[in-house]
Every structure is written in C-alpha cells, then in structure tokens.
Specification:
Order of helices and strands: HHH
Shape: flat
Length: 69
C-alpha cells in the first residue's frame, strides 16, 4: 500500500504533466515553450531529489545563514 507521501508525489507529478501539456497548447513561439519546459523539468528533478533525500535543502544556497569565507 503506497504511503501518503508517495501519493502526494504522484499527484504532484500528474499536475505538473498536465500543466506542461496545457502550456504546449498555448500559441507561442516554440523556443519559449522549450525554455519553459526545460525550467520546469529542472525544478521537478531538484524537487524529487529533495523529496527522496538525495539532496539537501537549497534554501541556504543563495542566502546562506552563515556566509562562506
């Protein structure tokens, strides 16, 4: 039986896939669509890596609490 966390991840991926499909239906330049798709896919990969614990939080990446010297 899948856990609620896994179900949430699956539902989120379905919603993101639907959003990508709907973006494909919008009449705009193909280059812009490819850029949007690429950004969304990279963000989803980072989110999945965090969700499964393969990568730490990226919150401190741009505004670290303790600056590196």
């Amino acid at each position: 039986m899948p856990t609620p966390g896994i179900i949430g991840i699956i539902v989120t991926l379905v919603v993101i896939g639907l959003a990508l499909y709907l973006i494909d239906l919008i009449p705009m330049d193909n280059t812009i669509k490819q850029i949007i798709r690429g950004i969304v896919i990279v963000l989803v990969i980072v989110w999945l890596l965090q969700a499964f614990g393969f990568m730490g939080s990226v919150r401190g990446l741009f505004h670290p609490a303790h600056p590196v010297r």
